[in-house]
Every structure is written in C-alpha cells, then in structure tokens.
C-alpha cells in the first residue's frame, strides 16, 4: 500500500491541481520567511549562473532583449509597412 504524503510536505511537481490552493495557503508569509525564500532562490539561480570571468556576452543579450521588446511593441506599425508597395 502506498504511503500518503501530506499536502504540506509535497513539492510543487507533486501537487495536483485541486490541491494547489490549499498548498499555497500553507506557506508562511511572514517577512522573515519571505526573505528566506528569496535568498534560497537567489542561491539556487546563481549556483548555475555564477560566472568567474565576465565578457561582452551580457551586452549582446541585453541588446537582443531590447530589440525583441521594441519589435513586439511596434509590430502593428511594422506590419502595415510590410504590406505597402513602393513601385
């Protein structure tokens, strides 16, 4: 017989959709626990992203994100420019 795990001890991937609201409401929302959650996520993220020697790659990523953002923002006007004939 399978052991039943309480909803509070389940990880996000183990929670079913119907249990999700009660799982979220079991969290501790005090300032100390919220700061701890941000700190844990920061260290988990930088465990994989921590770069010893920086280069110019971050500049190209920022520029690419900026260009994509502006393209999405101006898509309506650019779409009309594309359909015009100049001959």
From TrEMBL:
<keyword id="KW-0066">ATP synthesis</keyword>
<dbReference type="GO" id="GO:0042776">
    <property type="term" value="P:proton motive force-driven mitochondrial ATP synthesis"/>
</dbReference>
<comment type="subunit">
    <text>Component of the ATP synthase complex composed at least of ATP5F1A/subunit alpha, ATP5F1B/subunit beta, ATP5MC1/subunit c (homooctomer), MT-ATP6/subunit a, MT-ATP8/subunit 8, ATP5ME/subunit e, ATP5MF/subunit f, ATP5MG/subunit g, ATP5MK/subunit k, ATP5MJ/subunit j, ATP5F1C/subunit gamma, ATP5F1D/subunit delta, ATP5F1E/subunit epsilon, ATP5PF/subunit F6, ATP5PB/subunit b, ATP5PD/subunit d, ATP5PO/subunit OSCP.</text>
</comment>
<dbReference type="GO" id="GO:0005743">
    <property type="term" value="C:mitochondrial inner membrane"/>
</dbReference>
<protein>
    <recommendedName>
        <fullName>ATP synthase F(0) complex subunit f, mitochondrial</fullName>
    </recommendedName>
</protein>
<keyword id="KW-0999">Mitochondrion inner membrane</keyword>
<dbReference type="Pfam" id="PF10206">
    <property type="entry name" value="WRW"/>
</dbReference>
<keyword id="KW-0472">Membrane</keyword>
<keyword id="KW-0496">Mitochondrion</keyword>
<keyword id="KW-0406">Ion transport</keyword>
<dbReference type="GO" id="GO:0046933">
    <property type="term" value="F:proton-transporting ATP synthase activity, rotational mechanism"/>
</dbReference>
<comment type="similarity">
    <text>Belongs to the ATPase F chain family.</text>
</comment>
<dbReference type="GO" id="GO:0045259">
    <property type="term" value="C:proton-transporting ATP synthase complex"/>
</dbReference>
<keyword id="KW-1133">Transmembrane helix</keyword>
<feature type="transmembrane region" description="Helical">
    <location>
        <begin position="55"/>
        <end position="75"/>
    </location>
</feature>
<keyword id="KW-0813">Transport</keyword>
<keyword id="KW-0138">CF(0)</keyword>
<keyword id="KW-0812">Transmembrane</keyword>
<keyword id="KW-0375">Hydrogen ion transport</keyword>
<keyword id="KW-0597">Phosphoprotein</keyword>
<comment type="function">
    <text>Subunit f, of the mitochondrial membrane ATP synthase complex (F(1)F(0) ATP synthase or Complex V) that produces ATP from ADP in the presence of a proton gradient across the membrane which is generated by electron transport complexes of the respiratory chain. ATP synthase complex consist of a soluble F(1) head domain - the catalytic core - and a membrane F(1) domain - the membrane proton channel. These two domains are linked by a central stalk rotating inside the F(1) region and a stationary peripheral stalk.</text>
</comment>
<keyword id="KW-0007">Acetylation</keyword>
<dbReference type="InterPro" id="IPR019344">
    <property type="entry name" value="F1F0-ATPsyn_F_prd"/>
</dbReference>
